[in-house]
Amino acid sequence: AAPARVAMGTGGCGSTVEVAAAAMFADGPGGSADVGSLWRRARSARCEAKSCQTGPIATAEAAVQMGTKREAGVQTEQGAGVTQGSLQEGPADTARLLSFLQRVEDAVIKELSKNCRSHAFDGFEVNWTDQNETVLCLHTLSYPEAQHRKLQVTDVSWNATGAVVACSYGRLDDGDWSTEKSYVCTWNLDRRGLNPQCPNLVVDVPSSVMCLAFHPSQPSLIAGGLFSGEVVVWDTSRTEDPLILRTGMTDDTHTDPVYQQINWLPDGKHRNHFQLLSASTDGKMLVWREERDGRLVLAEGFALVAQQIPRSIRLKKLAWGETAVGVTSLSFSHFDPCVFVVGVEGGFALQCSMAVETEAPQRPGSSLPLRAPAELAFSPHGGPVYSVSCSPFHRQVVNLFLSCGTDGHVHLHSMLQAQPLVSVQLSKKYLFCVRWSPVRPLVFAAASGEGKCDMYLCFKGEVQLFDFEKSAQKAAVSIKQTLGESPVYCLEFNVKQPQLLAAGDATGAVKVWQLSSDFTEQGAREMKHLEQLASEVTD
């Protein structure tokens, strides 16, 4: 409402203003005011809402159920003519049973006493496990570059752990001399992703490698004998430059190839040290020791000479005017470290000793005098002896060893007599290698190939497993190693894993065979059987 204006007469305008101000702030009723919200109206138009909510809660359902067991019995129905009473023992049945036992008592006691004295089942052991009668090829290992050059596997060896197998490549039919380079290859069979055509290590060698042997306790060391007559040692853990020791070409080095054998020997003067013994067709057996500058130097040596062996042995005239006999194989006794057996080109096996003092005729320029080790000559084969293998088991009666050669025969010999205990012709094939089983005293393996003409020329290679317990005249199993005209030159049992046998052939392949339990489990009377086999002839 408009403020009241009151006139006070002629008193002037100041009084009029004061009255109007007082009326302006006077108490009075007023109307209501409504102010609309523009923010809510705009949000409602956009259909927006604001709220506060926790994240979704994950839920899952799982059911657990327990199995229940019930026992149920099944019984045939009782026949109509049978009553419960008939199943009960009665006084009459007991009397009849007692009468029967009294009648047969003497006969039963007699038979039981007879069985107690019988030896029909001595040594019989019940074997509740399934027997594996098959021989399987687990791996066929090869190096394509060597096969492309038609190189042959000349030797195989397992390392100290039994996980790595090595092979040497070369040529056994090259004639008088060879300058062709070759290889040493290794495969770790326990390594994942094994490629049989891709060795874990390949060592290039300037001369054919004729034989090799892993160190008996250091898994990475391997020694090799070369066609050039040298002896070398490689460390397979050094992939860049594995060659660590070598003899070099000196006056002491072999003048013929180191064909078939190289051995690690304990050093009697230095504990945990080893020396190397090499044998060659030049008639010498040389012992090498390590020098700090990476050289192998001659420690002692032996030579086979005609004066110690039968005249019928084929002799070879050497340059220095003395007659000597070519060594083709060698094996040490497992019980006497001084005794070893060698096979020679003339077909004989000879027992030798490292303790002899008889000197052999000396070759000019040799740094040490050589000794003549032969003590006994055994009955000959019909051709060169390519392999000998001393038994790792038998000592109670005599030391035994096996020999084989080009006549296809295997001779089982005692070191106490010249004649063989057993002579087995496995076939009309050359036999290049024989090895005694490390776990079965009556089992050995032989590598063969049929042929004629040259010393190492043969065909159709086989690995033959022989078990004296099954037969004394024929092989228990003949394994076809090669399909074509190629011999098997070498083989080696795995001492750590005796079910494995490696064999190398002329095609350049190494096959690893898994033997059946028949060839790996020793029988209870097997050692006695071998003793009887030896004693029957030596008595």
From TrEMBL:
Keywords: Cytoplasm, Repeat, WD repeat. It comes from the Eukaryota. One of its GO terms (biological process) is intraciliary transport. One of its GO terms (cellular component) is ciliary plasm. It is found in: Cytoplasm. Its main location: cytoplasm. GO terms for molecular function: dynein heavy chain binding; dynein light chain binding. PANTHER family: CYTOPLASMIC DYNEIN 2 INTERMEDIATE CHAIN 2 (PTHR12442:SF26), DYNEIN INTERMEDIATE CHAIN (PTHR12442). This is WDR34 protein. It comes from Nothocercus nigrocapillus. The gene is Wdr34.
